[in-house]
Structures are given as C-alpha cells and as structure tokens.
Amino acid sequence: MDRDEAIGALEAILMVIDEPISATILAQILEVPLGELEEVLRSLARSYLEDSRGFELKEIAGGWRFYSSPAYAQYVEKFVISGQPGKLTQAALETLAVIAYRQPVSRARVSAIRGVNVEAVMKTLGVRGLVEESGIEYETGAVLYSTTPYFLERLGLNSLNELPEIAPFLPDIHALDEVISTLTD
User: What pTM was computed for the model?
Assistant: First the structure.
C-alpha cells in the first residue's frame, strides 16, 4: 500500500470511529508496519494543525481520533445546541436509565442491554450534560459513562442512592416462567 492510499484509508476509518483507535489495530487493518503507520499518523496530525483545519488528529487514551479544533468551538457548540428539542426522546430516557442504574458503563454494554445502537443517543445525553465519560474499562479499553451532577439536579436528587428501586417494576420471576412456557407451547 502506498502512502497516499494509506492516508486515504486512515482518514476514512478515523471518520467513522467514535472512540480512539490504537495504532496497532490500524496497522493490522491496513497491513502496514506499525512504525510506518505511526509516522503517517504523526505527519497527518502536524499537517492538519499547520493547515488550520476545523479538525485535529490527536493521540489520546492510547488511540487516535479526529476532534474538532478548539478554535471553532463556539460554532460547534452553537450547531450542537441549536434546534435541540426540550424533551428527551423515549430512546434517550431508556438509555439514561440504563446508565443511571448500571454506571459506570460502556456504550457497548448500554447497547447490549437496550438491544439497539445507542451512539447518537449517548452523544445527545453528553451534549445535554446528563452523562459524561468517567473512565476506561480495564479489560476492553472501552470508555465508561456515568451520570453528571446536572443529572441529579434535573431529577431533584442529592445522590444516586435516592434513585427509586427498580425491582418493584420488574416482572415477578414466576410470571416470567408462565410467559416463557406459553411461548414454548
């Protein structure tokens, strides 16, 4: 693979990821030596800065990702916040509930619990200040999310201990057995 093709492939991959990706994984995907790939990444990062682009390529948390340039933060903020509806959607409320009760939790785990991709909803919740990154999962390297103090404020709670018990809203185990048996008959 020549340098131009490697740059194009890197840019395409970096445009679709939502979490930093390691140079090692990128090198494996592109089938190029790690040292060469790291040099291309550093060169691209410098080039974007020198060209005063609206985005930057940064190495953060052991991986590479595009980020919007701080020079244009006011415009990005205006874009993200403008037109936001006042109420949360059902999907956002469900996602927020999973995070509140399971935190800290990775995006993948929230998606698995809800059974749908939650990427866009997670971004909305983050923009609204209801959830935030709270660490990295040791085993997988996934970003972990938790609710914010603003979340507690909006719900009128002093702490997460004041969240209502969820068990009373879950079906009785015997009722579940009955439902399952009717489905298998």
Answer: 0.49
